Amino acid sequence: MINMLNRTNTHSHKGFSLAEMLLVLVILSFLIVSMAPIAYNKMPKKTDRAPHGRFECYYDGNKLMQYTADEIYGETTPIEVTQCEFNPPAKASFFIVQAIGGGAGGTYVTDDPYSTTPIFESGVINAPDTGLYDSVSLTWGSGGAYDLSNCTIADPGDAAGGSGGTCPTSWLGTYWNSHKPSITLDVCAAAGRNGTAYSLTYEDGHINSVPGGSGGPGTCAQITTGITLGSPFTINPTDLDLGGGNMTVTTPDVSCVLAGGDNGTNGHLAGTVLVPGTSGGTLSTDPATDCSNPAFSSYVSYIHSNSGAGVYQVDGTAGLPDITYKRQGTKAATRYGFMGNNGEYISMFFPELTESLDISIGRGGDEGTSYASPAGTDGGDTVIKLKNASATEALRAKGGKATALGGSYNFWLKGNTLVDTDAVDADGRFALTSGFSTFVELDQDSKMPSKITETLTGMGGDGAYSIVRETASVETISLNGVAIANETYTTPPENHQVYTCRTRDGSALKDDDGNEIKLNNPEVVCPAQKGHSGAVVIVW
Quick one: which of 53, 101, 121, 519 has the most CB atoms within 10 Å? Predict the structure, then answer.
């Protein structure tokens, strides 16, 4: 018992005393209290800075406006100034400076909007593919009919709204059948075939022979006939293989018979006498249907052909001719100018700014006003520089460049109603979105909203476009070089009414004051638009 107590007393000497524990607690208390100012001193640094803010300099119409806002006091009313100046708030940091130059003015139309030019379209209606006679192989075809589906464009005349590379079967077919083109054919029936010679060979080797008779001549006639679409040309000879024989000729206007040649007889031996063959004559026909009748033919002649083949010719060439057509009229065009180019966009970051900035905003360029000099003017540069810096040290967002480019859409004048086709919607006429309002940093739900997010800041101006009011013309149709029709077109009276210029979406085009732009007769050009001025946005 005494020993256990002694052991207990011995171990208690090795622990902390109450005084020692209290001393440790006092020391820890002093340490904790001494750290409190450190934590306290860090807290004010979060609020010891300028609040987030926004500065904007831009044009509202012809007024140069300056605007500031911050996250504590909210937005201020934009004020009109003669020169924008940005004074960085004390203790502000991390500045993002964004700028865009002025857009160039749009281009006027690049050619006389009232001008018209002669225009034509021509093509070939090909002869029937099967033909009638091959003068090389001396073989006959089955003939055929003229068909507008077998037509090719030789020259479309570069007129939008014309044939576009395929023959105009509708109007051409109408004119064709009411004004049939005609051709003159030299038609010859086949001559008779020659008779064969006859020969005797004697024992002494001597040969004695007599000739066969010559084939009789076929009749030729010159036939003038009209060509009706779909009506066939055919030739039906009596005997192609043996030669000779009469030949029936059928055209859209004529059906007649040509007298062929009779075959010559063969040489032969009569008893002991060699007898030459006799020549064939020309076969007889019904005078009423003979192609030599003046009702069908303008002349009759005779040919002798030992080949025995008939001939169906036009100007010495076997077969049927191609038929040409030509349409001549007047071309006009809707015209347009290209848009002006957007101003350059730049963005820079500055950890701090300690000096004020002088800011000059680039104005939008003026629009082109004459087709003789259609380009607008370039947009102005937007310039930002420190108060005491030189111009060479400035930040510069360059203005957009103007252009003298344009385009047109051609069409035939045929008494059309007033035309603004295609030019009003031409892609090249409309300025591209600058995107500036999407680049600048916005606080949509804060106290410092942007004042320029809905404008067309830095964009180029749209190009001009023209309409066509006067659509009167005279159109001539020719077949095989012979003018067969003249069509006269007049301008509809409604073309002289007031015309409201349009934007791409079909709404009325408006001027700077918000008034609709209208054209009174005879005005035909909806004007190009000025470029839009640049801007500067600074956020911190």
Answer: 101
Side chain identity, residue 481: G
As a whole number of angstroms, the distance between CA 237 and CA 187 comes to: 12
The letter for the amino acid at 103 is G
- Among the residues of 159-294, which ranges form H helices? 169-178
Structure tokens at 93: 């940091």
Residue with tokens 């040919």: 303
Listed in sequence order, the residues at least 6 apart from 392 whose beta carbon sits closer than 8 Å to its beta carbon are none
In whole angstroms, give the CA distance from residue 138 to residue 161. Answer: 45
pTM: 0.68
Tokens of 135: 């003068």
Cis omega (within 30 of 0) for bond into 492: no
Tell the burial category of 283 from Cβ atoms under 10 Å away from its Cβ (0-12, 13-18, 19+): buried
Q: Say how far apart CA 501 and CA 518 lie, in whole Å.
A: 6
Q: Give backbone dihedrals phi and psi of 28, rounded to 5 degrees, phi first.
A: -60, -35
Per-residue pLDDT tens digits for 371-412: 999 999 999 999 999 887 777 778 999 999 999 999 999 888
* Dihedrals phi, psi of 332, to nearest 5 degrees: -125, 180
Tokens representing 82 are 């003669």
Q: Is 171 exposed, middle or buried (0-12, 13-18, 19+ CB in 10 A)?
A: middle
110-132 per-position pLDDT tens digit: 999 999 999 888 888 888 765 55
